[in-house]
Write a structure and sequence with these properties.
By secondary structure, the chain is mainly alpha-helical. It has a single domain, classed as Ferritin, core subunit, four-helix bundle (Ferritin). The protein has 6 helices and no strands. Helix 5 packs antiparallel against helix 6.
Length: about 170
């Protein structure tokens, strides 16, 4: 009889544990995950665009690094979000999509300059977003993930800053 009661109650215990884990994640943490995933999608899309439209080898090399690093970060964030029951962005935010669309209309040196400027700007914004989560995030796993990504984002920002003027 005890075995039957345990079997009957086990799903409720697991469900309540699962629900408690979701309850730990605040709206601010969930917003960070959505915004970080949107920024990651944007970096990958812009990097792929740069592979096609850039004229400078240094921009193409930088873009390849962006695609690689942000694809890995997106995958890791997706796994973390899945454990928390959080939704990732499915597309760049409207302002980010507008940036992508503007760059689609450029090529050569004009593209290189606009892409380089966008990368500096985008990485400054991303660093600020991640720093806020690293400092004030309430979910320890999301906060730690953000902290772990900060050195990579700061490196990207420096690499973007070091791209030659076009």
């Amino acid at each position: 009889m005890r075995r039957i009661a345990f079997i009957a109650l086990a799903p409720l215990v697991f469900a309540s544990t699962y629900a408690a884990e979701f309850a730990k994640t605040t709206t601010a943490d969930a917003d960070f995950v959505r915004r970080a995933s949107s920024a990651g999608l944007t970096e990958v899309a812009l990097g792929k665009l740069a592979a096609e439209q850039a004229s400078s080898d240094s921009v193409k090399k930088f873009a390849a690094t962006m695609v690689d690093d942000h694809t890995k970060a997106n995958e890791a964030l997706g796994k973390l979000a899945g454990t928390k029951g959080l939704q990732l962005a499915v597309a760049p935010e409207p302002a980010q999509q507008q940036e992508i669309d503007q760059l689609k209309g450029l090529d050569g040196a004009k593209f290189d300059r606009a892409y380089s400027d966008a990368m500096v700007r985008d990485h400054k914004l991303a660093t600020g977003l991640y720093q806020l989560e690293a400092d004030k995030g309430e979910d320890p796993e999301i906060r730690d993930w953000a902290r772990g990504q900060l050195p990579v984002l700061k490196k990207h920002e420096k690499l973007a800053d070091d791209l030659p003027p076009f």
